Amino acid sequence: MHDLKQIDLSAQVERVKRKTRPWKSIIALLLAIAAAVISDRARHDSHAIFIVSHLTDQFIAAGTAALFGVFGASATYGLAGKTRELLEPKAGTAHAAIVRYAILIAGAFTTLVITLALFAVPVGQLVLGGALSTVFVGIAAQQALSNVFAGLVLLFARPFRVGDAIRLRAGALGGTLDGIVTDIGITYVRFDTGGSVMSVPNSQVLNAVVGPIPPEEDQASPPVVMDTKSGTPGGPEQQQPAPPGPV
Is the pTM of this model over 0.70? Predict the structure, then answer.
């Protein structure tokens, strides 16, 4: 009985944490916005709000800029996790993970750019250098990125679901591939082919013809009865004529 009460108490605590998690993220987002506004006003129009020295203004601007980075990162991480929890029952674990990663990347990039701007770092040059670096990295990782974007297309198009028995037909696959979808990941789709689990890149799945496995035709033919003596077809054993003997 004590163990049951302890398990029930742990479940209630977990439910309370899940309910309070989005509020923490929202509060962190509001604090990040407030920190950004204070940092910008303290750096550019300090004497309109604070009647303090220039050094103190710079300290306030730098401190609130750092707080914006902390609160922005916390809000991004929390909102991404909450989005995954909401989408996972409807879209599946893999698709919810893709959306979470997209929110994390977009939020982290936005937080970094605004934080650097609050610290008076020349963001334009950094963005230009980052864009050039992104081009070279994109060329080097073209195959991996194509699988990621193909996974996003599969996320929204949803030609099949986990658990569906499908057939893929493409030249890159060497013909046809029949199997049951066991997982749809960011870069690979996994199929249970009966004897093993195969991982097919998302780009090849997207370029393949997808359809359900057709019902197998009954190719069973009538059994052939073998001769028990000669081992050749001929039905049941029949009496063979005796060889001609001497008259």
Answer: no
